[in-house]
C-alpha cells in the first residue's frame, strides 16, 4: 500500500494452508503481503482479534447447503468488541484423495470435516456403500490424517489443490452434492468507526426477542419492513437459558449510515432487550439494495426538516 | 391575566349567543373578559383567524351521533396557516320551543338545524307524525325563525336556555335521541410554536394516501401502531379530484413533542404525498395516553445514543 | 322485457323527475318500462323497499367531492333486510337557472340543495359576491322554489335539463367546481340470494370495531390485505352511543362468491362484534379486480384438499 | 397393554442403552414392553420407519443450548411419509467418567460427543486447561472409547447412569454449563390419520418461502398472527439450491383440528410453494394454548354459518 515503514498487519484464519478459509483470505486485497496466522479453530481466531494478536480474523459464517455456522453466530452474539468489516464467497468443491497407489475400491474409512462429509455423503453412499466416516477438524486435516497410521484412514475429503500441500492422489473430483454450493466468510476486526457506505452494503446484527410478548418476532420484522429494508438472512439461535427463548441473527440490505437502515435499527434497539450490531460492510456480490423512493435518504431528511418547522410554528402558507 | 394594558384578544364563534359553540367558548379560561365575535358560519370564523380579525375561532369538529363535521375537516385540510390549540366537549341536549300560547298538537312545521333535526327526528316522528322540517342555519336561528312570519314555522328545535334570549315557551325537553350525545369543538388559531405537552394530549393531522399503492392505508396505520400510538379518530374524506382518492383525518393520542408521536409523524410524512399537521393540544377529557415502556421517551433517546456510539465505534466491552 | 303478463316492478327514487337519482335509475335496464315512484327523501325510499311497496330503491351513497352520504350509510347500517344489487355513476353538473327575464346581475338569493351549493359556491362567490343561499330539499325543488313567491328566490342551482320540466332560463352552465365530479348511486332491494359473480364486482359491508382493543382497525384491514382484497372505500361512522366508537363502511373489490373475499369476510365476521353484509354486485366501472395468483380460487380449493388429506393421513409419498 | 396376542411394536432410537434418546423413549407409555431397536444415527432411525422395520423412531429435534438439530430438521423436510406423534423432554446433565483408578489430575484427552463437549467446555477449561477433545459419535460411545486403547482417551463426558453400563468411575458431576438445559425429542411414525386434540397440543410444519417476494416471511408469520396462533419455534434452514433461499421449521401452539390452526395452515399452504405438515401431537409440557375468544372454534363455525346464510339470502331481520 505504501513504501514507508507501515506496520505489518496480522490476519488469523482456520489453517493450515489450503483451506477454504485461506481461499477467502486470498480475496482480501489489504491482506496481501501481510502476516497470515493459521489457527486451529474459530475460538482461537476470534481470541486473536480480541487480544490484539491479530488485526482481523477470517471466519466461515454460512453455508448454502448446511446453513448458518451456528458456533460462529453464537460467538459473535456473545463475545463483545468484534465487528464484521467484509464478506467473501468461496465455492465449495471437494475431491476425494488417497495415498499414492490406493484405489477407490480399496476405500473403507473416509476422513472428512463433518460439514464436508454431509455434502459428499450421497456420492460416497453410491460409490462406496460400506464406507465409514472418521470426523476431521478441518478439510485439510482430513488429508493430513491419511498419514497418521493410528487413524487407519483410507481416503480423505479435501478441497481442490490439496495435492500441492500433501503427497496424495485424486481419486474423484466434484463429489459434493450441489455444484453451486458456496460458503460465506466474514472478516472480523475489533470495534472501530463504521466505514462509509459503498452503495452495495450489508448490515449484520443479532437481536433478542422480548420474553413476554407473542408476536414479538412479527414486530421485529416490521421494523425492517416499514422502512423498506430487505433481509438476506434470518436465523434463530437459542439464547441458552431455557427452551423457547431465541435471539435472531439478521443480515439486512444496506448500511447503517443509510437513513432507512439507521431508522430500522433504532426501532429494533427500542423493542429488543439486547441488540448486538455486528457491522455494515460491502456485499460480496456487489448487488445494490433496491428500495422505493419513499425510503430514500432525502425523504428522511425532508421529514425531519418538516417536523422541526412544524414544532417551531413556521407558517407553510 | 394582568392589570397592565394588555391588548384584548378576539374570539370568533358561530353565534348568536346561546349556541353550543358559545357554550364551548365559555369553557376557555383565557377567553373570559375578551372580545367575542359571533359569526354566521364556519368559513367566516376561520377567515377571521386567517386575516387576523380574530386571534382564534371556536368550531365544531365532531359529533358523537352524526360523525365528523365534514365541512370543518375539509376546511382545515385545505386552508393553510391554521393550528388547533384546544379541545372542548359540550353535551348535546335539545328542547322544542314555540311562540307563547302554541301547543304541541298545533305543531306542523318544525325549524331546526339539520344536525339537530336528525337527532330529534325519532321523537318528532312519534309526537307529531305529520310534521315537516324547515332547515335553519343554526340552533339559535331556528328559534329566531319562529318570529319570521314568511317562514310559517310552528315550533323550533333549540338548545336549553334559549328562553333567556327569545320570548318562547318550552313544549318538550330532552327530545334528542341519545342523552349522552356530545359535540367536540376545537379552538383554532394561526400557526405558531407548539405548546408544551401536558401529559394528556392529542395530536391532529390530515394525511393523503399515495395514489398508486393498495395497502397504503395499512402502511399509514402501521406508522402509528409500530410506535404504540393509539388513534382516537380516523375519518376518510374524498380529496375531491376524482372518485376513490382519500385523505384521512386523524387524531392520535399524545403530543408531537412525545418521541413516539414525533417518530410516527416522521413515518407518515415520508410515506404520504401530503400531510397537514393540525396541532398538539390538551385533551378535553384529560385522559393520559397509555403506552408500553418500549415506547417511552427514554427508550427513544437511549436508542439514538446507542446508534451514535455504534457508528463511532465505541467499544461496548 | 317480455309481452307475457309478467308483474310490473316498482322502483322508488328521490324525485321529482329531473334529479340525478332519476338519471341513475335510467341506467338500470331492468327498470325500463316499469313503475317509477318518486319520493321525497331517503327514509321514504328505503321504507318503500322494506314494506314491499317497491321492489328496489335508487339512493345516492357517495359523492366524489362531498364524500359519503352519511345518512344513507347510517340507514344501511341500521335498517335490517336490505341488500345492494347494483351500482351506477352519474356525472355531477350544475346550471344556474332563473325565471324568464331575470338576469345574472339581478340575482341575490340563490336556492340550492346544500351539497349542490357547496360545489357551486366558488363560482357564486366570484360571480355574485353578495349572494345569499336558501337551502332546498333537492336539486329539482330548488328550481320549483323559483315559483314560490314567499321564498323570494332569484335563481336556482339545478341539474342540466331542468328547463324541460320548469319554465326557466339558464343563466350559466358548468358552475360546479370540479368538472369530473360524479355521484355514486346504489340500487337497494330486499335481502335475497346473492347473484353470481361477473368478474368485475364489488362487495359492500359495514363492520363495527371491538370496543376494547387498540389496533382493532389494523386487524380489520389485515383481514382483507392478507387475502389480497383491495378496498375502494373505507369510511368511519360513529356508532352513536358514545364518542370514539366507530363502525366502518367498506367497499371491497370482488364478490362474496370469490374465495378470497369469502375468506376475508369470515375473518371480519369473527373479529367484529357486528357485521352487516350489504351485497355483492357488478361494479359501475366494469374494472376487474387484480390479485396475485396466490389468491386465486383454485389456490383456496387446493389448500382445503391438502388440509383434508393431511388430517386423514393420506401419504404424500 | 394387553395379554392377548397383540403384535409387538418396534421402536428405533439412537443407542446404545444409556443415551438421552433412550431416556426419552422410556417416557413413552405405549413403548414399554415392546421391541427397542438401538441404531447408530438419525438416518438409520428414520429409514427404519420409512421401510417399516420399526413402527416409530425417537429422535432429538432441539436442544435448549445448541438450538435445532439441523440434520433432523432437514431430514423431516425432505423424507416424505413421516409424521411426528409425540414430544418428550430430557434434562441434559453430564458427568465426567474414567477407568477405575484414573484421577482428574491425570486427564488430558477427553472423549465426548461434540454437542456434549460444547456444553461442558467451560468446566473443562477451568478444571483441565490443557485438555484436548476427541470427538465421539454419541454420549455413550464416548465412555466406550475409554476402553479402546488406540484412542488414548483419559476421560469421557457421559450421561448420568453410565456407570450401570460400563466399568467407569465418576470424576465429577454436573459439569454442563447450564443446569436447566434440556433436549427435546420427537417420536416419529409413518403418515396416518391425525389423532384427536388433547387441549394442550403442538403442530409442526416446514414451509418454504416464495422466491420472489421480499416480505414473504412477514406474510407467513401473519398467517399465524391473524388467527391468534402463537409459535414456539421458528428456525430457518437453507433449501440448499442456492444462497439466500430458506425453508422455515415451525412449531405452533394448538392442533390441526383446532379451527384457528387449520385456518392458519390453509393460509400458509396458499402462500407457500411447499409445505410439509409434520404432525399435531400432545405437548410435552402439557401447557394449554392461550387465545382470545375471537379465535375460539365456535367463532369460526358461527362465521361459516353466517356466510352461508348471507349468500343464500336469509333475512337477518
TrEMBL record, chains A, B, C, D:
Pathway(s) of this molecule: Amino-acid biosynthesis; L-phenylalanine biosynthesis; phenylpyruvate from prephenate: step 1/1
Q: What is its EC number?
A: 4.2.1.51
Q: Please give the SUPFAM superfamilies that the UniProt record associates with this protein.
A: ACT-like (SSF55021), Periplasmic binding protein-like II (SSF53850)
Q: Which reaction does it catalyse?
A: prephenate + H(+) = 3-phenylpyruvate + CO2 + H2O
Membrane-crossing residue ranges in chain numbering: none
User: Could you mention a single GO BP entry for this protein?
Assistant: L-phenylalanine biosynthetic process
Q: Where is this site: Essential for prephenate dehydratase activity?
A: 183
Q: Which residues form the ACT domain?
A: 205-283
InterPro entries, alphabetically?
Answer: ACT-like_dom_sf, ACT_dom, Chor_mutase/pphenate_deHydtase, Preph_deHydtase
Hydrolase among the record's keywords? no
Under the cellular component aspect of Gene Ontology, which terms does the record hold?
cytoplasm
Q: What class of enzyme is it?
A: lyase
Q: Keywords for this entry?
A: Amino-acid biosynthesis, Aromatic amino acid biosynthesis, Lyase, Phenylalanine biosynthesis
PANTHER family, A to Z: PREPHENATE DEHYDRATASE P PROTEIN, PREPHENATE DEHYDRATASE-RELATED
Q: What is this protein called?
A: Prephenate dehydratase
**From what organism does this protein derive?**
Leucobacter aridicollis
| Source species taxonomy | Bacteria, Bacillati, Actinomycetota, Actinomycetes, Micrococcales
Amino acid at each position: 500500500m505504501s513504501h514507508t515503514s507501515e506496520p505489518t498487519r496480522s490476519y488469523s484464519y482456520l489453517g493450515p494452508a489450503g483451506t477454504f478459509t485461506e481461499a477467502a483470505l486470498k480475496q482480501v486485497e489489504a491482506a496481501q503481503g501481510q502476516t497470515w496466522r493459521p489457527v486451529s479453530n474459530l475460538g482461537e481466531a476470534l481470541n486473536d482479534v480480541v487480544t490484539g494478536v491479530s488485526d482481523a480474523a477470517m471466519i466461515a459464517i454460512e453455508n448454502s447447503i448446511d446453513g448458518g455456522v451456528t458456533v460462529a453466530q453464537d460467538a459473535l452474539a456473545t463475545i463483545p468488541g468484534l465487528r464484521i468489516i467484509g464478506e467473501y464467497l468461496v465455492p465449495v468443491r471437494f475431491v476425494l484423495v488417497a495415498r499414492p497407489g490406493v484405489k477407490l475400491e480399496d476405500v473403507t474409512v473416509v476422513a472428512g470435516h463433518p460439514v464436508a462429509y454431509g455434502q459428499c455423503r450421497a456420492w460416497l453412499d453410491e460409490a462406496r456403500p460400506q464406507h465409514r466416516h472418521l470426523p476431521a477438524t478441518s478439510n485439510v486435516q482430513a488429508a493430513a490424517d491419511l498419514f497418521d497410521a493410528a487413524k487407519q484412514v483410507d481416503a480423505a475429503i479435501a478441497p481442490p489443490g490439496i495435492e500441492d500441500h500433501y503427497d496424495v492422489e485424486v481419486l474423484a473430483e466434484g463429489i459434493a452434492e450441489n455444484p453451486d454450493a458456496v460458503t460465506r466468510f466474514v472478516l472480523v476486526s475489533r470495534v472501530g468507526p463504521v466505514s462509509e457506505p459503498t452503495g452495495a452494503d450489508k448490515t449484520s446484527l443479532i437481536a433478542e426477542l422480548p420474553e413476554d410478548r407473542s408476536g414479538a418476532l412479527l414486530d421485529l420484522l416490521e421494523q425492517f419492513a416499514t422502512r423498506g429494508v430487505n433481509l438476506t438472512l434470518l436465523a434463530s439461535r437459542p439464547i441458552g437459558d431455557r427452551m423457547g427463548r431465541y435471539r435472531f441473527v439478521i443480515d439486512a440490505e444496506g448500511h447503517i449510515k443509510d437513513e432507512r437502515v439507521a431508522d430500522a435499527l433504532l426501532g429494533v434497539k427500542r423493542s429488543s432487550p439486547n441488540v448486538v450490531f455486528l457491522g455494515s460492510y460491502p456485499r460480496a456480490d456487489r448487488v445494490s439494495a433496491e428500495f422505493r423512493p419513499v425510503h430514500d435518504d432525502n425523504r428522511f431528511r425532508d421529514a425531519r426538516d418538516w417536523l422541526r418547522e412544524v414544532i417551531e410554528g413556521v407558517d407553510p402558507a
